[in-house]
Design goal:
single chain, about 180 residues, mainly alpha, about 80% helix
Protein backbone atom coordinates (compact mmCIF):
# COMPACT_ATOMS: atom_id res chain seq x y z
CA UNK A 1 0.00 0.00 0.00
CA UNK A 2 2.77 2.47 0.93
CA UNK A 3 4.51 1.89 -2.43
CA UNK A 4 1.41 3.23 -4.12
CA UNK A 5 2.06 6.79 -2.91
CA UNK A 6 5.42 7.34 -4.61
CA UNK A 7 4.01 5.73 -7.74
CA UNK A 8 1.05 8.12 -7.71
CA UNK A 9 3.33 11.11 -7.03
CA UNK A 10 5.61 10.12 -9.90
CA UNK A 11 2.62 9.48 -12.16
CA UNK A 12 1.04 12.82 -11.28
CA UNK A 13 4.31 14.64 -11.90
CA UNK A 14 4.75 12.88 -15.23
CA UNK A 15 1.16 13.69 -16.20
CA UNK A 16 1.67 17.37 -15.31
CA UNK A 17 4.87 17.52 -17.37
CA UNK A 18 3.24 15.75 -20.32
CA UNK A 19 0.23 18.08 -20.12
CA UNK A 20 2.44 21.16 -20.14
CA UNK A 21 4.56 19.83 -23.01
CA UNK A 22 1.58 18.86 -25.17
CA UNK A 23 -0.73 21.81 -24.40
CA UNK A 24 1.73 24.64 -23.67
CA UNK A 25 0.71 26.62 -26.76
CA UNK A 26 -3.01 26.52 -25.90
CA UNK A 27 -3.77 28.09 -22.48
CA UNK A 28 -7.49 27.44 -22.94
CA UNK A 29 -6.70 23.71 -22.85
CA UNK A 30 -3.63 23.79 -20.60
CA UNK A 31 -5.26 25.38 -17.55
CA UNK A 32 -8.27 23.04 -17.39
CA UNK A 33 -5.98 20.15 -18.36
CA UNK A 34 -3.86 20.63 -15.25
CA UNK A 35 -6.95 20.77 -13.03
CA UNK A 36 -8.28 17.65 -14.76
CA UNK A 37 -5.02 15.75 -14.21
CA UNK A 38 -5.06 16.62 -10.49
CA UNK A 39 -8.68 15.47 -10.28
CA UNK A 40 -7.86 12.16 -11.96
CA UNK A 41 -5.01 11.54 -9.52
CA UNK A 42 -7.27 12.15 -6.52
CA UNK A 43 -9.99 9.94 -7.97
CA UNK A 44 -7.52 7.15 -8.75
CA UNK A 45 -6.08 7.12 -5.24
CA UNK A 46 -9.47 7.20 -3.57
CA UNK A 47 -11.00 4.54 -5.81
CA UNK A 48 -8.04 2.21 -5.32
CA UNK A 49 -8.07 2.59 -1.54
CA UNK A 50 -11.76 2.92 -0.72
CA UNK A 51 -13.52 1.79 -3.91
CA UNK A 52 -15.45 5.03 -4.07
CA UNK A 53 -15.23 8.19 -6.16
CA UNK A 54 -16.16 11.04 -3.83
CA UNK A 55 -18.92 13.38 -4.95
CA UNK A 56 -17.05 16.32 -3.40
CA UNK A 57 -14.04 15.87 -5.68
CA UNK A 58 -16.27 15.53 -8.72
CA UNK A 59 -18.43 18.54 -7.79
CA UNK A 60 -15.48 20.88 -7.19
CA UNK A 61 -13.83 19.72 -10.39
CA UNK A 62 -17.05 20.15 -12.40
CA UNK A 63 -17.46 23.70 -11.09
CA UNK A 64 -13.84 24.41 -12.03
CA UNK A 65 -14.36 22.93 -15.51
CA UNK A 66 -17.40 25.09 -16.18
CA UNK A 67 -15.83 28.24 -14.73
CA UNK A 68 -12.55 27.84 -16.61
CA UNK A 69 -14.30 26.96 -19.86
CA UNK A 70 -16.73 29.84 -19.52
CA UNK A 71 -13.82 32.23 -19.01
CA UNK A 72 -11.35 30.83 -21.53
CA UNK A 73 -13.44 29.03 -24.17
CA UNK A 74 -17.13 29.99 -23.92
CA UNK A 75 -17.81 28.79 -27.47
CA UNK A 76 -16.80 25.26 -26.49
CA UNK A 77 -19.37 24.93 -23.71
CA UNK A 78 -22.15 23.38 -25.84
CA UNK A 79 -19.80 20.65 -27.10
CA UNK A 80 -18.53 19.98 -23.59
CA UNK A 81 -22.06 19.79 -22.18
CA UNK A 82 -23.11 17.39 -24.93
CA UNK A 83 -20.00 15.26 -24.35
CA UNK A 84 -20.71 15.18 -20.60
CA UNK A 85 -24.30 14.07 -21.21
CA UNK A 86 -23.27 11.42 -23.75
CA UNK A 87 -20.41 9.97 -21.67
CA UNK A 88 -22.39 10.01 -18.43
CA UNK A 89 -25.42 8.56 -20.21
CA UNK A 90 -23.39 5.73 -21.72
CA UNK A 91 -21.99 4.68 -18.37
CA UNK A 92 -25.37 5.15 -16.71
CA UNK A 93 -26.80 2.58 -19.10
CA UNK A 94 -23.98 0.20 -18.19
CA UNK A 95 -24.54 0.81 -14.46
CA UNK A 96 -28.27 0.20 -14.79
CA UNK A 97 -27.71 -2.96 -16.84
CA UNK A 98 -25.21 -4.37 -14.33
CA UNK A 99 -25.36 -2.46 -11.02
CA UNK A 100 -22.78 -4.67 -9.29
CA UNK A 101 -20.30 -4.04 -12.09
CA UNK A 102 -20.17 -0.28 -12.17
CA UNK A 103 -20.89 2.38 -9.60
CA UNK A 104 -22.50 5.76 -9.95
CA UNK A 105 -19.15 7.39 -9.20
CA UNK A 106 -17.89 5.99 -12.50
CA UNK A 107 -20.94 7.45 -14.24
CA UNK A 108 -20.31 10.89 -12.75
CA UNK A 109 -16.60 10.68 -13.55
CA UNK A 110 -17.39 9.93 -17.20
CA UNK A 111 -19.66 12.97 -17.32
CA UNK A 112 -16.90 15.07 -15.77
CA UNK A 113 -14.50 13.77 -18.40
CA UNK A 114 -16.89 15.04 -21.05
CA UNK A 115 -16.82 18.50 -19.47
CA UNK A 116 -13.04 18.62 -19.68
CA UNK A 117 -12.45 16.75 -22.94
CA UNK A 118 -15.39 17.56 -25.17
CA UNK A 119 -15.38 15.27 -28.18
CA UNK A 120 -12.10 13.68 -27.04
CA UNK A 121 -14.11 11.85 -24.38
CA UNK A 122 -14.92 9.21 -27.03
CA UNK A 123 -11.35 7.88 -27.40
CA UNK A 124 -10.87 8.36 -23.64
CA UNK A 125 -13.74 5.98 -22.91
CA UNK A 126 -12.50 3.56 -25.56
CA UNK A 127 -9.07 3.45 -23.90
CA UNK A 128 -10.66 3.06 -20.45
CA UNK A 129 -12.83 0.14 -21.50
CA UNK A 130 -9.96 -1.53 -23.40
CA UNK A 131 -7.60 -1.18 -20.42
CA UNK A 132 -10.26 -2.46 -18.02
CA UNK A 133 -10.99 -5.43 -20.27
CA UNK A 134 -7.29 -6.20 -20.61
CA UNK A 135 -6.88 -6.14 -16.82
CA UNK A 136 -9.91 -8.41 -16.46
CA UNK A 137 -8.53 -10.89 -18.97
CA UNK A 138 -5.19 -10.83 -17.18
CA UNK A 139 -6.88 -11.60 -13.86
CA UNK A 140 -8.85 -14.46 -15.43
CA UNK A 141 -5.69 -15.91 -16.97
CA UNK A 142 -3.92 -15.69 -13.63
CA UNK A 143 -6.75 -16.74 -11.28
CA UNK A 144 -9.09 -18.72 -13.50
CA UNK A 145 -12.86 -18.51 -13.30
CA UNK A 146 -12.71 -17.28 -9.71
CA UNK A 147 -11.47 -13.92 -11.00
CA UNK A 148 -14.94 -13.22 -12.39
CA UNK A 149 -16.19 -12.69 -8.84
CA UNK A 150 -13.45 -10.19 -7.96
CA UNK A 151 -14.33 -6.53 -8.23
CA UNK A 152 -11.72 -4.10 -9.47
CA UNK A 153 -12.27 -0.34 -9.38
CA UNK A 154 -12.95 1.20 -12.79
CA UNK A 155 -12.01 4.77 -11.83
CA UNK A 156 -8.28 4.25 -12.49
CA UNK A 157 -9.05 2.96 -15.97
CA UNK A 158 -11.25 5.99 -16.61
CA UNK A 159 -8.39 8.17 -15.35
CA UNK A 160 -5.97 6.50 -17.76
CA UNK A 161 -8.42 7.07 -20.59
CA UNK A 162 -8.85 10.67 -19.46
CA UNK A 163 -5.11 11.30 -19.69
CA UNK A 164 -4.97 9.75 -23.15
CA UNK A 165 -8.02 11.77 -24.20
CA UNK A 166 -6.48 14.98 -22.89
CA UNK A 167 -3.11 14.49 -24.56
CA UNK A 168 -4.05 12.69 -27.77
CA UNK A 169 -7.86 12.40 -28.02
CA UNK A 170 -8.38 15.09 -30.65
CA UNK A 171 -5.54 13.70 -32.77
CA UNK A 172 -7.00 10.19 -32.46
CA UNK A 173 -10.42 11.44 -33.56
CA UNK A 174 -8.97 13.43 -36.45
CA UNK A 175 -7.04 10.38 -37.62
CA UNK A 176 -10.09 8.13 -37.33
CA UNK A 177 -12.43 10.54 -39.09
CA UNK A 178 -9.86 11.28 -41.80
CA UNK A 179 -9.17 7.60 -42.38
CA UNK A 180 -12.66 6.13 -42.22
CA UNK A 181 -15.02 8.93 -43.21
CA UNK A 182 -12.96 10.47 -45.99
CA UNK A 183 -13.03 13.83 -44.14
Amino acid sequence: MAARYPAIEFGLGAAFVATVLVLRDDPARLVPGLVFVATLAAVTLTDLERRVIPNGILAVSAIAAVAISAAMDPGGMPERAAAAAAAGGLLLLAALAYPRGMGMGDVKLAALMGLYLGRAVAPALLVAFAAGALAGVGLMLRDGAGARKRAIPFGPFLALGGIVGLLAGDAMLDWYLGTFSGG
